[in-house]
């Protein structure tokens, strides 16, 4: 599936959209980290929580759970909320 | 090569990136190299004195999680740590997560590639491969007593309580100290297997129990390079000196001018004279404005271990200057006379060639400065 990468993470992907695979959102993050080492920890903390200001949208809905299943999903949108000055 | 022949370099960590200022041996000219990591929050940028080439930077952004960047060539190229500091994962996801690495300390001279890191929330980590991979160090991250003393994000500084001031005895790599903003000062003589609180003589906010480490708020602890048995401390409640093997801190800040007080964050010890110390006081009154007292910034210097203090403000703004200096943002080089440097909360970098007798501005208009360290590249 396609994954939209927010600009603060372009240092890892050097691309706005990348391909990644997985049956769950967590598996997609794992696949992203295999392709772009280090990217997962910038988005997901050591307790498995999506970090503050990270937003993940699937089919127009915000998803918070790494166990969220992705059957039939073609695109995952990762964006970053505004934070601070 | 004597210190006079060397060209010191300043490593400046800011709220929005890092800069490296290369000086000439006379310390008259400074060449700015930066920004590195523009827009990243850099809490500490430290040169490894063991090789004079390796730099570690503690980074995060407003959006992204914390990491460590490493350069083997003084910042020409950077590589991210393969495993940044992180707490152990709890099975139910209820464990702590590192918000940012706050403090970096190179390990003992005999332990090449060893580094220590302090984090917020408070954690102690170690790397044995030059900063590429990090693991929790010592028992303290999960020890029940230490966890109680550490508090939570409800405690400590506005962006979380810090573990800082990680000190390594140059005579013995197993002899360590660290401090916590909210949590006290702690010493290990067994390589970090165990730590013991060192709180005797330290004062706490009136009405609280001074025997409870959680009420102690050291801001900056320094070990004297010329006498590792002597420690100085700038604390939330005063300036202190400790001469080991004694265990009782002496409040030498009582000797500061009453109108200035003895509240501040940074503290610098002369590298060759353990009686000489500099602090940079701030306004700790009423709501803790965290500005220079009365809008008149100044360093204060003691030549006698804290018995007497002298104001040093020549060249600094005489009035209406409402910045101050954070705990990692003041340091010295090794020249004679000594060079002193500090970075301000309003993004100015200041230096002195004459041990604080006069100050000049090296750079203006930087972002808020979190840390300034020095080193001599090789």
UniProtKB/TrEMBL annotation, chain A:
Family annotation (InterPro entries): Beta-grasp_dom_sf (IPR012675), Mopterin_synth/thiamin_S_b (IPR016155), Sulfur_Carrier/Prot_Modifier (IPR052045)
Gene source species: Nitrogeniibacter mangrovi
Protein's UniProt name: MoaD/ThiS family protein
TrEMBL record, chain B:
Keyword check for Hydrolase: yes
GO terms, molecular function: hydrolase activity
Source taxon at top rank: Bacteria
Keyword terms: Hydrolase
InterPro entries per UniProt: WD40/YVTN_repeat-like_dom_sf, Xyloglucanase_GH74
Hydrolase as UniProt keyword: yes
GO biological process: xyloglucan metabolic process
Protein name (Swiss-Prot/TrEMBL): Glycosyl hydrolase
């Amino acid at each position: 599936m396609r994954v939209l990468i927010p600009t603060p993470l372009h240092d890892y992907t050097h691309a706005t959209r990348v391909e990644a695979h997985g049956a769950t959102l967590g598996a997609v993050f794992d696949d992203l980290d295999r392709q772009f080492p280090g990217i997962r920890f910038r988005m997901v903390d050591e307790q498995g929580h999506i970090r503050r200001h990270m937003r993940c949208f699937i089919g127009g809905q915000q998803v918070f759970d790494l166990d969220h299943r992705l059957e039939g999903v073609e695109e995952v949108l990762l964006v970053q909320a505004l934070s601070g000055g | 090569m004597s210190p006079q022949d060397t060209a010191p370099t300043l490593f400046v960590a800011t709220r929005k990136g890092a800069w490296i200022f290369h000086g000439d041996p006379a310390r008259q000219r400074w060449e700015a190299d930066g920004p590195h990591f523009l827009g990243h929050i850099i809490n500490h940028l430290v040169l490894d004195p063991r090789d004079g080439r390796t730099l570690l930077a503690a980074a995060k952004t407003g959006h992204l999680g914390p990491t460590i960047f490493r350069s083997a060539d003084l910042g020409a190229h950077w590589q991210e740590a393969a495993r940044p500091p992180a707490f152990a994962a709890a099975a139910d996801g209820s464990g702590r997560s590192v918000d940012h690495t706050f403090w970096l300390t190179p390990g003992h001279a005999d332990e090449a590639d060893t580094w220590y890191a302090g984090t917020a929330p408070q954690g102690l980590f170690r790397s044995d491969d030059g900063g590429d991979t990090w693991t929790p160090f010592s028992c303290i991250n999960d020890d029940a007593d230490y966890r109680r003393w550490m508090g939570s994000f409800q405690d400590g500084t506005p962006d979380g309580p810090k573990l800082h001031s990680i000190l390594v005895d140059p005579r013995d790599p197993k002899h360590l100290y660290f401090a916590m903003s909210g949590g006290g000062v702690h010493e290990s003589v067994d390589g970090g297997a165990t730590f013991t609180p060192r709180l005797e003589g330290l004062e706490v906010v009136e009405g609280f129990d001074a025997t409870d480490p959680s009420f102690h708020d050291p801001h900056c602890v320094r070990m004297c390079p010329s006498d590792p048995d002597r420690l100085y401390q700038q604390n939330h409640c005063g300036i202190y000196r400790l001469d080991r093997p004694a265990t009782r801190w002496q409040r030498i800040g009582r000797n500061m001018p009453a109108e200035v007080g003895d509240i501040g964050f940074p503290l610098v010890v002369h590298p060759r004279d353990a009686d000489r110390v500099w602090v940079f006081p701030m306004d700790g009154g009423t709501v803790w404005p965290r500005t220079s007292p009365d809008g008149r910034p100044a360093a204060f210097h003691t030549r006698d271990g804290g018995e007497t203090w002298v104001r040093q403000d020549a060249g600094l703004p005489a009035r209406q200057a409402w910045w101050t200096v954070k705990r990692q943002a003041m340091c010295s080089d090794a020249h004679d006379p000594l060079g002193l440097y500090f970075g301000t909360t309003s993004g100015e970098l200041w230096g002195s060639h004459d041990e604080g007798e006069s100050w000049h501005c090296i750079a203006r208009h930087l972002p808020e400065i979190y840390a300034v360290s020095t080193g001599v590249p090789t």
